[in-house]
Amino acid sequence: MTKAPPLRDDCFVMPRGVHWTPVDEALEKLHQSLKKMKNTSIIPVNKGFGRVLAEDVLAATNHPPFANSAVDGYGFALDTISSKSEIALELISGRSAAGSPFSGKVPDGTAVRVLTGAQIPEGVDTVILDEDVNKIQNIIYFNPGLKKYANIRPQGEDISAGSIVLQKGKRVCPADLGVLASSGIKTIKVYDQLKVAIMTTGDELVELGNDSHKSQIVDANRPMLIAQIERWGYTVLDFGIVGDNEDLIETVLNKAAKIADIILTTGGASAGDEDHISKLLVQKANLQTWRIALKPGRPLALALWSNTPILGLPGNPVAAMVCAHIFAYPAFSFLAGSGWRKPISYNVPAAFSKNKKPGRTEYLRARLNIDGHAEIFKSEGSGRISGLSWAEGLVALDHNTENVEKGNTVKYIPF
Length: 415
Description:
It contains seven helices and 28 strands. It is of the alpha+beta class and 415 residues long. It folds into four domains: 23-38 and 193-336, Molybdenum Cofactor Biosythetic Enzyme, Chain A; 40-63 and 168-191, Molybdopterin biosynthesis moea protein, domain 2, CATH 3.90.105.10; 68-153, Molybdopterin biosynthesis moea protein, domain 3 (Molybdopterin biosynthesis moeA protein, domain 3), CATH 2.170.190.11; 346-414, Beta-clip (Beta Barrel), CATH 2.40.340. It has a six-stranded mixed β-sheet with strand order 7-4-6-5-9-8, with no helix packed on it. Strands 16-13-17-21-20-18 form a six-stranded mixed β-sheet, with helices on both faces. Strands 19, 22, 24, 25, 26 and 28 form a six-stranded mixed β-sheet that branches.
């Protein structure tokens, strides 16, 4: 009787006798293990871009602050006009322009020149457009049919003083700065900026620009992940490459834990001979190592090191990038105070066909073609880092999917 196991020749095959955690279950475990940011600061509104609000923001003023004209035209009191045929109104001297309002009250049965954005003078409740008027000397002629308050933006039409303009947990975008300024807000309370410490492990790695030996490769993970984290709006603390030495790794983790809100590592998170991250976390931290049923990137380490969470990603660059989008993105969002936010996704037709093994979630490097259909990279090999540059997102094939035909609906996650 043979003692050798059946040959399956699939590096992503699920070993027998091991519980493989579905992606959704792993995400929920990650969510439940984290505690969100508590430290806050008061900052000027003009310094608020990219920051996360620590409380609801209430409008200090109305917007618009006063009733104003939506058009260039002429203002009058509609109820003072009795004619049901052609209307003729005398123009009084003066005008109301943006920043230079008309002073005084407009007499009944007369009109005044009003420009776009100008404050509506007392005695005016309706504005008629220039194009609907025939002006002869100081008389304007127009036909009836206007409704009262036509072409007037009421005070507080958009935002009323005391109302919530932005909610707690909102990441401030450029348009939000305009809303805050228009609402009379000068300062906002925000969560402190999330600080992410990052390190890669492995004697086989060298820094970009350094000479490498034949047995070494350039560290691709850190430049890629640092740029992605900064794009998400967080502060990166770069601890560089750390060799395969547990004492050295422990020293770096101690330094990082003192100044970072979360530590992100790549490499060493599995159970191999040189997987020192997972070994160290087993010995000195409460390690949760999940064998996750996904492709690419099965091992994911989570632990607390001096009360600072560590998220250990796979060392393969493709797997590291995929896991960063699927796991690090919502974790960072939660820690930063924005809530647990999964990456945006939407359904599109597939421009490909594929047979898939059930029981694991697969993420394929993808982009949309000219028809808006998802096409995938020519190779699924996780060592093909060029596919990350070619791609503009991922196609996610869920746990139970077995076959995809062209035209079937798939979930597309843009980078």
